[in-house]
Amino acid sequence: MKNLPIIFSLFLFAFAVIPHDNAEIQKKFHLSKSKWQTFRKQCNNTYNFDITWNSATGGWVVKTIYVKEGKPSAVTHRYFDDNGNCYRTINKTTGQVDKNEKTLDDIYDFVANQVINRDPRSFNLFLELDEDGLIEICGYAAPDGTHFTGYNITGIQLCL
To answer: For residue 117, which of 16, 21, 31 has the smallest C-alpha distance?
Structure first.
């Protein structure tokens, strides 16, 4: 019982420090989505963007998705070694593009449905925007930082 005030104080401190709602990330997301909808309309939903991730064998992969009028029309995968040298490129054009290939609309849906409504006490939530206010990094991870699920968008080119 002597430690009860200390335990209670620690509980209050933890409750005050840990974010318990997603208001800030939701606001950030909705502002970004509004900007995206404006850009998308101005460009007739035609653009390309890069998604980058680390390779399990070292180096990294850059996937460029070309979207024409809202549908993926081509995809390029470029594989880089640890020194930044591109050692392999795979191009897929119309007819070869996987029907499940993502568009920026899909990524905004992913954030709306799988990121901003998660409990920030149970997950690390990520939503970073580029200089135009569009999504750059989004997703979630376990509290220890492992098992990231999301996207790292390294470039968006609009109005192609």
So the answer is: 21
